[in-house]
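Contributing new records

If you add data, match the layout below exactly. Sequence lines come first and carry their own label; structure lines follow with theirs. Keep one chain per record. Anything else will be rejected by the validation script.
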Amino acid sequence: MHRVSIWCRGSSRCWHFSQGLQKGLPLKYRSVVASPAYCPAPGRARRLLHIASREADPVMMVTTLYLPSGPGPFPLWVFNHGRNFGNPVHQARSRPDALAKVLLREGYAVAAPNRRGFADSGGRHLSHWANPLSGGLCCARDIETVVLAMAGKPYIDASRIIVSGHSYGALGTLAYGMKPHAGVRALVNFAGGLRGESDQGWQEPLRDAFRYYGRRARVRSLWLYADNDSFWPLDYARGLHEAYCEHGANAEFVNLGHFKECAHRYVLDPDGVGFWWPKVAELLREIEA
């Protein structure tokens, strides 16, 4: 079914619908400009998109988009956020500015979606740390929606896509790797996993989830962990990697070393760019060779 972008005059907001769903739009949105080739003006590096899920009753996912200057098409980097303890509705909108800044210099467009039920996106987040396999699959559903929407943009090179995630978002990224878009070149796992607040009960289910995703993996992945991450002791993180690779998945594990007091959020820290970027730059060189 043909999908179009709907842009409100005087607004940075952009909705994405199949033509069949436009009839259900609120009246105030029916006088907008509709164009399947709408491309945001490149004057500002960061803007918001509202991307609709593919259900009959679509959920809007607020996505922070960073675009390099110029007309494109640009390779695409998708960044999937983690989860704080507590109600995800109260979580801040995903804005990985430090990561986006370095990737913009490399000519990448960066899309940072807020999955359903997080921040100001619609819908409900239904997964739980006690069932990380299901949780990762829920994430993968929303990641797929965003990748497909972005791959259809005229300013995106749909043959050059990297999908990444931090913590819970990395778990979802690896789940997405079971059925990736044809243009996805690699996945990047920034300290991935999903755990409860206590130290008991989540370790084995999480290992099983990684094993399940790895058995069905269809694209290479780079795993970037640290030796002072309070969420994942390094030996446990290595065990997740071993479980993922049991059936031959192509995944490189890297211990980045020590970062500040706790390394878990290194990819979101402006001071952390030098910590993780060399390995990512190496990956990009290999992909583009």
